[in-house]
Amino acid sequence: MGTKAAGTRSVAETLESFERLVSSYGVVGTLQGATKDSGRHDTYSCHSRIGSGRAGRGVSKDQHMVCGGTSPESADVARLIAIAEAAERYAAMTPIDDDEAIRASADDLAGECLEPHRYPRCSASEYAHPRCPVVPFDSTAPIRWVRGLDPVARAPIWVPAVMASYATDATTPAERFNFPISTGYAVHTDPVEAAVRGICEVVERDSIAVLWLQRLPLKPLRPNVTTDAMAGLIEWFERRFMRVHLLDATSELGVPTVYAVGAADHDSRACRFVGAGTGRTLAEAAEKALQETVGGDEHIHGTAPLDTYEDIQGEIGETSRYMAARERAHAFDFLLGNGDGTATAGEGIRLPQDPDEALAALLDRISGAGMQVAVLDRTTQELSDVGLTAVNVVIPDLQPMSTHPWGQFKGHRRLYTAPRLMGHRVLPEEELNPWPQPFA
């Protein structure tokens, strides 16, 4: 999820600092001891839980958000990642304070705010559906705004509060133009690396949304794109009579991205499940995508089945459970069997390892494509005390990944320009993928 913390401190020093966040009343309410999962190629796993993320607001036992950390390196690294994942969600769920927001219309802030013509929008038919979760943006209506940074112009910029935090309270009708989701949030001990990972996640989600809606026939990774960790994770699938298809989802923005499809043909409930990842290289992106996909079948079996389309409410995980069923496995066929043995789009791309250089490269590619970027500092006092920075990256020109079947933003320009820029044909709205987004 674009979190993970490193920096110049050792793992032991960083973990000692991070564990100050763990207590019954802390950012991380509980943390299960990291154990070696021999079934996952000797990978260490750890799970953490957070509550509401809001002062004075508790949650029931079943409402705690579960986060996870896995690592082939050590139990300490898995534990560190689990804490960082929880810290990211905690920061993302922290609502906007009244004293950090202003109320104005976009017209009032013209030239000083994230430009409204870039905001994702649904199609007319989507807006007309009674279950559509969003409304068209109204540039004349007063809404809440918070300060962010335009890193290209190196200037402050006003960003709608509902884009800055997906836990914004008491939204007005005019603020319901945005579907709240965790895209773009990241934490790290290095603020620049946090911004890099936030940008990469927004690009990843753009690819996920476009490839699914436009049914892009992605090419599989060639055998030369591999690492020892990848081989071990693929072996994990094979030992369980499953296959995993790794596909190059790198867009014209040049950020290595991999989409993974797990296939368990013997499993009626978890026959198909997906994951994705970005990285400095295609191999790094593939490792992340595999980590996201491993255990996808277990997650589906650990939740109640969802067999009826009309029962989908738009909550994270619902559509992945619905699409995992064997009777809907054919919906994934457009992704499989497209290999011709040639190099793929992301194979020769490398982002610099140095965070400053990587950020400069990403901003150059995004601004060069005519897109606008905003970075918001969402660091809470608790995170700052242990040396973590939390950011939220907003790139409205990119296609949002929505898990709500009746709010897929099919009117957004990016959905129809991206395929051609990636060398694919473009489907009109009436021919877009009718199946709901399977990513969770």
UniProtKB/TrEMBL annotation:
Cited Pfam families: YcaO (PF02624)
Matching InterPro entries: TOMM_cyclo_SagD, YcaO-like_dom
Domain YcaO: 69-440
NCBIfam families documented for this protein: TOMM_cyclo_SagD (TIGR03604)
UniProt name for this protein: YcaO domain-containing protein
Organism: Plantactinospora mayteni
